[in-house]
C-alpha cells in the first residue's frame, strides 16, 4: 500500500502530503501499539507530544504579485458582515481574499448590528484598524471609506448583492467583477463564510494572515484580556478555559432536553415558539446524533475522566447560563477552582458590559491563551479557536465527541468510575487537538488550516522510521515510558 501511494506521490504533490499523513499516522500507531498492543496509550492531557514537530506558516510566496493600488484597482468593495464576533471574523477574512481575487480596493468592513447578539460596535471598536490596513498592505489596498468625490459622482446608490455561501473564486470573477467594473462600487451583504473551503495555497495562506495576524483586537480589549490571563496564571501554573454555550435561547433552539424536567420543557418550549419555522425535533434523536451541547456537569465529567484532577483551575467563558448557579454547581463540585471574567475583573469590565462583541472578544483572548481549551459545543467560536490553536503550535484543544459521549453519559450509572473514565478517553480519541487528527483538506478550513501548518524537518525523519520498525520500537519505548509516567502523575 505504501509503495502504491509513494508512486502516486511522484506525480502529484497533493498525494505526497497524504502519504506523509499516512506514514506519520503509522508511526503513531506503532508508538502506541508498543505500550499495550491495543493502540490505546494514554496521552498527555495538558500538551500534545507531537506539537513540537509543527509550526504555523503563512508567508507570501516568492512570486506573489504585489497589491493593486487604489488608483489601479477594479473598484471599491463594501462588505457587510453577519452574525456574532466569530462569524464576522470568517466574513472579514473571506472579504480580504475576495478583494485580492477581484483586484478591488476593500473598504473597512461594516459589522452586523442586527444579529441575535445586538451590538452597535463598529470595526474600529473591536479591531485595530491601522494594524489591519498596514499588515495587509502587500496583499490588498484597504481604505476606511469610499472617497467623497467618488460617492458624489455616482449616479445611483452602490449596487448591492448577496453571494451564496462558500462560492468558488470563479463565481466572483464571473458574477461580481463585471458589475464592479461597470459600477465601481459593489456592496456584498450578509457576508460570512462566502468563499469555498478549498482555495489555492496562496489564497489559503492569505486567509491565515488575516485571521491569525491582521485581525488584532483594540488595545483596551487586548489589555483587559491579557490581565485576566495573568490573574489566572498567578493562581495556577496552568489552567483550562472552558467555553460553555448554555444560554436559554441557544438551548431552546437546539431542540434538545437537558434533564431539567417539566420546568425545563415548558421554559425552553416557550422560547422556541419565537421561531415559527423551526422543525419538530426529537430530543433523543438530536442527542444521539451528537447535536446537543454538553451540560456543565457533563463537561466536568468529561474533563475529570480524561485525567484532570479536582485542583485544576478552570476559566469559564460563557454568556448567561440557563439555570444559573444551580446548573453550574455540579461542575463546581468536580472543579472547585472556577473563575469567570466577572470574578476576575469586576470593575474593569464595566465599560464593556453593554457590548456583547467586546465581551466575547475578552473571552476569546483568555481561551486562546489558556493551556487547555475545552468546549461543550461545536459552534463558531469553538471552530475558530480550534483552528487558531492548531496554527499557534497545537495547543491542547478538547472538543466533545458528543455523538459517542451521549450514549456513555446516559449509561454513566451502569459502570464504575474507572470503566467510565476509560470509555471517555476512548470516545475522545481524535477530538483532543492532536496534529494528525484530520486529513489535510478535510473539515472546514477555519477549524483545520492545513495550508498554514508546516512540519519541522525532524517530523519527516520520524516518518521515515516507519520503514525500520525494530529501531522505532527501541526509540519510542523510552519516550512512551516517560509519557505514561507523566499521565499517572497528572491524574493523582
Ligand atoms: C489582477 O492583477 C493581476 C496583476 O497584478 C493580473 O494578473 C490579474 O489578471 C488581475 N485580475 C483581475 C481580476 O483583474
Ligand atoms: C480533591 O479531592 C480530594 C479527595 O479525592 C479532596 O480531599 C480534596 O479536598 C479535593 N480538592 C479540592 C480542591 O476540592
Ligand atoms: C534514536 C533516538 O532518537 N532515540 C531517542 C528515543 O527517545 C529517547 C527519550 O526521549 C531519546 O533520549 C532518544 O534519543
Automatic annotation (TrEMBL):
Residues 1-16 form the signal peptide. InterPro entries: FucosylTrfase_pln, GDP-Fuc_O-FucTrfase. The keyword Cell inner membrane does not apply. One of its GO terms (biological process) is fucose metabolic process. Pfam families: O-FucT. Keywords: Carbohydrate metabolism, Fucose metabolism, Glycosyltransferase, Signal, Transferase. GO terms for molecular function: glycosyltransferase activity. Belongs to the glycosyltransferase GT106 family. This is O-fucosyltransferase family protein. It comes from Cajanus cajan (Pigeon pea).
